[in-house]
Design a protein that fits this description.
Jelly Rolls; 6 helices; six-stranded antiparallel β-sheet
């Protein structure tokens, strides 16, 4: 067992769980090599990083990236939350890169979004809402405060579970809340740290005013029976979470 009762209690209450140092350096370096080989920036020349914004590297299905999430210990931790044998055991881990804008003023993000909703830039078709079960964000390098950290809104999964009791799933343009969810929490940490997050967790990437590229491998794990239950919003939001229900 990789998770204890306190871990599961934290995930249930806040909608996310951070575990430190779960990926070994060998797998991290293999993944970083693939990423840097497939982007135009020079790994050894910080001048090529500055002001490049935020994007997803055109890799993720390579074995070096898949092993970050779809092997132990990350995948076993995910199963401990959702249920043994309930998740698809093969998938990608897209490298999300937040390039630094050194010298800029840092402002914490005021709002986030739910994944799967159409925007002008994300490629999701209008009228379609994508579904998954559990997100996993794994850092492949150091992410200090104000360094573009993955940001979540603790407890928002509970807000949305109630909201969708009374609203259609496609009634949320862009996946952005029409009300205040309070302050976000910035996930900071070291290479090998992972943040698990509920699929109805409002989240976003923070701005990076540091000096390093924020490199995160992000996966959206899916239950094997997701297509059968994705339109259900039971009163017990943990009905399909055998690990913590």
């Amino acid at each position: 067992m990789f998770l204890n009762d306190e871990d599961k209690k934290h995930f249930k209450e806040f909608g996310y769980l951070i575990k430190r140092g779960v990926i070994d350096s060998e797998r991290i370096e293999a993944a970083l090599d693939v990423i840097w080989e497939n982007i135009e920036e020079d790994r050894n020349d910080p001048e090529t990083w500055v002001g490049k914004g935020y994007r997803v590297a055109p890799v993720g299905g390579e074995d070096a990236l898949k092993r970050i999430v779809y092997s132990d210990p990350v995948f076993s931790m995910a199963e401990e939350l959702v249920g043994k044998g309930k998740l698809h055991s093969d998938g990608g881990a897209g490298p999300h890169l937040g390039f630094p804008n050194s010298g800029a003023d840092w402002n914490p993000p005021k709002q986030g979004h739910l994944d799967g909703y159409h925007t002008l830039s994300n490629g999701v078709p209008k009228g379609v809402v994508g579904s998954f079960t559990l997100g996993a964000t794994v850092y492949l390098d150091e992410v200090p405060p104000q360094g573009g950290g993955f940001t979540v809104w603790p407890g928002s999964h509970i807000v949305w579970a109630e909201y969708f009791q009374y609203h259609d799933i496609d009634s949320l343009p862009g996946g952005v809340a029409p009300f205040d969810l309070g302050e976000g929490f910035e996930f900071t940490g070291s290479a090998g740290d992972v943040c698990f997050w509920h699929h109805q967790m409002t989240h976003t990437a923070g701005s990076n005013v540091g000096h390093n590229v924020r490199v995160a491998a992000i996966s959206r794990l899916r239950r094997k029976d997701l297509n059968d239950i994705k339109d259900e919003f039971p009163e017990d939001m943990w009905q399909y979470w055998e690990g913590i229900g």
